[in-house]
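ok posting inputs for the glutathione job
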Amino acid sequence: MLLPILYSFRRCPYAIRARLALTHAQVPLEIREVLLRHKPPAMLAISPKGTVPVLQLPDGQVIDESLDIMKWALQQADTPASHALIARNDGPFKALLDRYKYPERHPGQTAADYREQAIELCIQDLNRRLTDSPCLLGNQPGLTDMAIAPFIRQFAQVDADWFASAPFPALQIWLNRFTESPLFISVMAKYPAWQEGDAPIHFIDGPGVYAGQRQAPAPQAADSAP
Ligand SMILES: N[C@@H](CCC(=O)N[C@@H](CS)C(=O)NCC(=O)O)C(=O)O
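and the output
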């Protein structure tokens, strides 16, 4: 059976959210782990912009934006509320996150300055929303939580001690619940980089999240995805 193929990079927050949605929806697929410094020609041939994730469907259709992959997997359009939160995350918050992670690439302000701006823009508001309900748009985690959580995880990891003692209890609980969930743990399994001619690795192999080849995820070190 021809399966969709997902070009992915384990630590990339965009690829993480695509894998979350595909796994949540139990879409059987083949996963190809990509080294960003050696992108496979097969991937560049179908998506010359060269970002991961890229999903290639058996009919040849290519979806190369993580949010579009999520919407395809969940067969769901985002609501206006969800759209606003995700746009803020992917736009100005991601820009501040990059500055907070790599202040040396953005001289002029300190990491603490960038962190403060991220708090005012986004972190405070997410914490307030999560004080009102356990997930961003209600009681159940959905597209919005899956789209945003990988980026808040990176924000928390920049200075884990600081984050653990920061005054955002509802956000901390939400993030812990997310990173400890079987869904998140399953999508963080490690795979060797894919090379042309490799036997397919079935990421989701029929019903059930835990495919045969899946290795137990390694303990998390601080990630430094781009
Ligand atoms: N808007 C894209 C962004 C994807 C993206 O920027 N992915 C990064 C990895 S986290 C990437 O592939 N960068 C290309 C590179 O580093 O060469 C999406 O949502 O899918």
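notes: The chain has a mean pLDDT of 91. The chain has two domains: 5-75+183-204, 80-181.
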